[in-house]
Amino acid sequence: MTNPILQGLRVVEVSAFIAAPIGGMTLAQMGAEVIRIDPIGGNIDYRRWPLAPSGTSLYWASLNKRKRSVALALNTPEGREIARALIAAPGEDAGILLTNLPASGWMSFDELRKSREDLIMLRLTGNHDGTGAVDYTVNCASGFPMATGRGEEPVNHVLPAWDIAAGLYLSTGLLAAERARRRDGQGREVTLALSDVMLASVGNLGYLADVAVNGTVRPPMGNELYGALGRDFQTADGRRAMLVAISGRQWRAIGKATGLAEKLAMIGPMLEVDLSTEGGRFAARRAIAAVLEPWFAARSLAEVAAAFEGSGVLWGPYQDFGQLLAEDPRCSPANPLFATVDQPGAGPVLAPGVPLAFSTNPRPEPAPAPALGQDTDAVLAEVLGLSTTAIGRLHDAGTIAGPT
């Protein structure tokens, strides 16, 4: 990378699964040196589905792009001592640990700061009281599964939204703590509860206030947009398209592009609602849909796309993962977010970099995840100054491991 925005920052990550790895990967893709420490043979997420034919976890590889990988025998005092030394290594931009694993014993903040007083430690917990939780147990309590679908049965979405949001909170918190340390010279432990990420999101979106102020609990409405016009329509070739009108300009664009402006305008007086407002269009959504459904049903998805091209209509096609990769130009090297990388154990894959673009720094190109233990020798030599002979002895003792 040329002049990455976080060049010089070093973070040690001891993690598994989604939240902390996403936080570390976000920093790594912006140029930080992120050293992920795993047990020899890999942590509990190292073989998680989906797998390549070789057995390589595409899940693990996708969450650990551009990091450095160190494999240590963390079940031994020697392995833990090396990990401690890497975490507490000197340097103005070092001494930072990111983890979502239990922070007890040798990996507790109080123990680690004995080796470096200004240590920054970012730690993800399940609940604010320290009890355990995962995305699936947090999501079921969020209210969203009860508002998803069309009936009374809750519907879990497959997106681990709270893990993803937590990972981005972790990276934000880490940068905030590092900036504060530059100002006051103090280390600090920063904790984040996964359930608090969910609770903050539900509150920030107004759903808690809606209950408190209006006594309203959002009902399940299928693919309809709550409080505005938006829903899916089936096309002649069996595909579906999502159509949304939040602003007045978007609403008028629908009538113009479909040629149905006059018919749509008749709905307002007939139902005594103001279609120039979001609330009015929401109240009249069934009648609006009845006018638009035949228009979509008479056209293929390609014909819908052609009709809406350049019209100002806010819409999008429903796609499965295969259609996303095959049909959507945004999910291709035409988008500077993506590049094809050679992922060890998997071969060429289309991989995203960081979605952020800085005007003063070139967008870093996507890079593959390392093989497990790929950087063990180099990191111990560069960060801890160990000699080739000393590193060889650690290999012979089974304390460290190289790539597998």
UniProtKB/TrEMBL annotation:
Gene3D superfamilies hit by this protein: Crotonobetainyl-coa:carnitine coa-transferase, domain 1, formyl-coa transferase, domain 3
Listed GO MF terms: transferase activity
The entry's keywords: Transferase
This protein's record includes keyword Transferase: yes
Keyword Transferase: yes
Protein name: CoA transferase
Organism: Muricoccus vinaceus
